[in-house]
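Appendix B. Chain record.
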Amino acid sequence: MKSTMTLALLSILGLAATSAFAHEDFATVISATPIMQRVAVPTRQCWNEQVAAVEERRVRVPGQVEYSEPRANSGAGTVLGAIIGGVVGHQFGNSTGGRDHGTAAGAVIGGLVGNSIDRDNAEGGVRRVSRDAYSVERVPVTREVQRCRTNTEYRDQVAGYDVRYRYGNRDYLTRMDRDPGPTIRVNIEVRPDFR
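Structure tokens predicted for this chain:
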């Protein structure tokens, strides 16, 4: 158990020692090549146009116009004819059963006669109505209308950089989102070699 604890303690101290040797340094940038990417950029283009149209205007004409309207059929003649026909039919029936049949027949015939009279009165009777007269004029007008359309333009833009740099006697390659300039910061870490 003591040896396990000693081994763990030595491992922790070894890690602390190796992290103490980690530091930053600068490497020389050999090249930074931009990575181009084609991007669609929608643009909205608007303009005003003069458009010819026709506008309808209602214009009052001096004086009045007289026209006829048919009278409405109220149905009162049909109802009154059916009642009178029913009463007369009831009077001329001979027996109890005959009176019922006579009442029904008289009501039907009276209703038909009353309806016919109502219809004749409605068709023959018109009423005169006077109203202001109007005319509709069609006037040409010009209106300004805004028209728009969306155009798609394609532009090349930088998506990142392939950066080649040298540290010590070795060359390295990395991809970055910006151009680092003449030098690049690198992390140097010294680790023990347990071979």
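Further analysis of this model is presented in Appendix C.
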